[in-house]
Every structure is written in structure tokens, then in C-alpha cells.
Amino acid sequence: MADLLPVAEAQARLLALAPAVAVETVPLAQAVGRWTAAPVIAARDQPFADLSAMDGYALRFADLGQPLKVVGESAAGKGFLGSVAAGEAVRIFTGAPVPDGADTILVQEEAARDGDGLALSGKGPLRIGAHIRPRAQDFAAGAEIISGGAHLTPAMIGLAAAAGYGALPVRRAVRVAILSTGDELVPAGAPASGAQLPSSNAPMLAALLADLPVTVLDGGIVRDDLAAMTAAFTALDADVIVTTGGASVGDHDLVRPALLAAGGSLDFWKIAMRPGKPLLAGRLGGAVVLGLPGNPVSAFVTATLFLRPLIAHLSGAADPFPRRLSAPLAHPLPANGPREDYMRARLTSAGLDAWPVQDSGMLAALAGSDALIVRPVHAPPVAAGDLAEYLPIA
Ligand SMILES: Nc1nc2c(c(=O)[nH]1)N[C@H]1C(S)=C(S)[C@@H](COP(=O)(O)OP(=O)(O)OC[C@H]3O[C@@H](n4cnc5c(N)ncnc54)[C@H](O)[C@@H]3O)O[C@H]1N2
Ligand code: MOO
């Protein structure tokens, strides 16, 4: 197995094939799920001033024991312009600026108001500064609030808006062409007779990319014919060309020869992983070519480990790889061989429960899985209850 490339090495070589695509600036509404093309620096303080966190009265903590006089009001967007002197209080609302001179908020539930008069009716604030959000408590102008290459979440979109931005620099959408290869294939939904079968890989891969900033071009089904496949490669204009099937060693496995015939180059072929061994990668013009195995589960697993990280990388991700978590195993697992194994499993209350049959053609088991257990090369047997690494897939 010395000719099989380790998964991590293949991933690194794949990402080295092309840099991130060009930068564009998009409105916040279109930025979620994309990666920042530069660090985001706060353009303002948040809060912009000391603000009240409660509805109540702004006063001086030292005055709490005595009757107070209410001298005005501070509301969000309309602060009190004067200053609070000894013996005075200002009616205040959540989000309103704390007036000069005041240092503490008395919540209204603990206050007795009579005309302009104010007295403590409950325990009152326990410390100076109670219920005040200090200026810049969240972030200060000039602070880096989101790093470059960060995957923009809904919370980060809110953060960027609060920091003064209506748009952010990200990478343009990556154009991904998906080509299915095989004489036996018909498009999903078309009648399949005799030895024909629906091309399930193309819609599955498009669905697997649906949360990424991509434009998917359907390259259709290409016959197992060198000239047809070479012509299909030549016709495509994309950043990433993904093929499924025809990656192995059979007489009809033509992706590699067609890539070379079209003027492309091969970077690597055959990985020490199961499923997914025949994976290949190379370049064709400005495009990265990724040849996934035809077996549906192999296509899914290699797309998870290679295609999605490639798109994240081209989109400017600082960390393009899927999250690895760990959980206890529900059942023992045998020793692993020379290929890194990605076992389909359900994450149950008893732990990670691997399917007893791990055939790479079995889509029903894949669809019933929410985890891929990662078994390292030559891992020893493991017992029920032992922690195992897994990739969440649902
Ligand atoms: N002698 C050897 N044979 C095989 C080896 C090997 O090392 N030596 N590797 C095996 C491994 S591992 C895999 S994985 C498969 C993958 O081979 P290919 O990438 O060439 O895939 P195909 O032969 O074209 O197809 C395999 C299987 O998947 C079905 N298929 C293909 N495309 C689709 C699609 N779009 N939608 C649904 N199903 C698809 C196809 O009908 C086949 O059943 O090779 C092993 N063989
Ligand atoms: O390694 Mo292949 O990818 O059996 O399934």
C-alpha cells in the first residue's frame, strides 16, 4: 500500500493546486456562510457610551439611603443633557445613556415614586455601577472583532453591523461543474431500464454544496468513451471540475486518461482511505479537477473530506477542514488496516453505533447516519465506551 497517499497529505496537495478566488464586497444579507477576505475592524465603540441595562433610575450610589428628587429622563436615542447632582435621580430606560454624575441604576421594581420624589422600596443596587453596561464593554473602535478567513455566522453578521458595517469583503462564488461518468447512468427521475441506474451522485453532491458559496454547473452524464470525456472536459469553464466514477483501474475508467488527453495534468491518484481509494486530483487550465469514485458512499465521503475543504479554501477559509469531534463507541471495533477508515454510524444515547455492513454502495445506511467514525491507519481494536473521533455529517 506504499503507493497510496495518506489523507492529510492528499488534502494539503489538493489545496496547494489553487489560491483563493477574487475578492468582492457584498451586503451583509449576502455575506452569511462566506469567509472574510480581511479582518473586520470595529469602526465604533459598542456600547457607544455607558448605558443602562434596566428600566429604573440613574443616581449616585452614595445617595441611596436618602430621599431623592427626579430631575429628568434619559431614553434610548434621547439622553438626558444635564448632570445628576447629589440628592438627584434621572428616570432612565434600558439602552439609554447614563447621565453625567450618576454611577448606578436603581431598578424600578425597587423604587417608590411619588411625583418628583423617589425612595428606595426594596434592597436596591448592591454595588456602585450596578446595571450599567460600560462604554466599549462589547468591543472598542479599532479592535479586530472578526479575523480574516473566518466563516461568517449569523452572530458575526450582527457583530459586523453593530461595528458599523453594511457590507463586507468576501470571495466571489466558486464555480463548480459536476460531471457524472458511466454508460449505465440516466438522470435522476428518468426511467431506468435493465442495466441502467439513476445518477444519484450529481444531485447528492449539489445538495452537499448547497450551504457553500458556489455556483453549480450541471455537466450532465458523460459516456465511458475517451473522446466524449475529453471533449466534456475541454468544454467546461469552471474553478472546480468534479467528476464521479471512472476513477479506478478498469478498462472503462477513463477520467485520468481523458484529463491528460484534454491537456490537463495529474497531481495525485489513490488515497489510503476507505471508502474513496481511487480519488484523483489535477489541473486543467485554470480549474482544479477532482475525480471522485463512483460508488455513492465513496463519492459522499471524498466530497466531505476533499471537495468541501477545497471550496472553503478557494473561498478564503483560514480553516477549511470539517470539524472533528469525539464520542464513546456503542460497540467494540476491530483493528484497522492500512487505509484510514470512515465508518458510517449513528450517534445515539449509547454512543457511536457503526453500521454492521459498511459497503460503499449503500446509500440507505449513509442516509441513516449522522457521523463518520474516523479509524486511523493501523489503529488497534477498541472497546465499547472508548472515545472515537468522528465527523458530523447531518
Ligand atoms: N480491480 C480493482 N477494482 C476496483 C478497485 C481497485 O482498486 N481495483 N477499486 C474499487 C474501489 S475502492 C472503488 S471506490 C470503485 C470506484 O471506481 P470508479 O470511480 O471507477 O467508479 P465506477 O466503476 O465508475 O462506479 C462504481 C460504482 O458506482 C456506480 N456509480 C457510478 N457513478 C454513479 C452515479 N453518478 N450515481 C450512482 N451510482 C454511480 C457505478 O454504477 C458502480 O456501481 O472501484 C472499485 N474497483
Ligand atoms: O474505497 Mo472504494 O472507495 O470501495 O469504496
UniProtKB/TrEMBL annotation:
Entry keywords, A to Z: Magnesium, Metal-binding, Molybdenum, Molybdenum cofactor biosynthesis, Transferase
UniProt catalytic activity: adenylyl-molybdopterin + molybdate = Mo-molybdopterin + AMP + H(+)
E.C. code: 2.10.1.1
InterPro entries: MoaB/Mog-like_dom_sf (IPR036425), MoaB/Mog_dom (IPR001453), MoeA-like (IPR038987), MoeA_C_domain_IV (IPR005111), MoeA_C_domain_IV_sf (IPR036688), MoeA_linker/N (IPR005110), MoeA_linker/N_sf (IPR036135)
Assigned GO CC terms: cytosol
Cofactor: Mg(2+)
A GO term for molecular function: metal ion binding
Assigned protein family: Belongs to the MoeA family.
Stated role: Catalyzes the insertion of molybdate into adenylated molybdopterin with the concomitant release of AMP.
Name of this protein: Molybdopterin molybdenumtransferase
Organism: Sphingomonas gilva
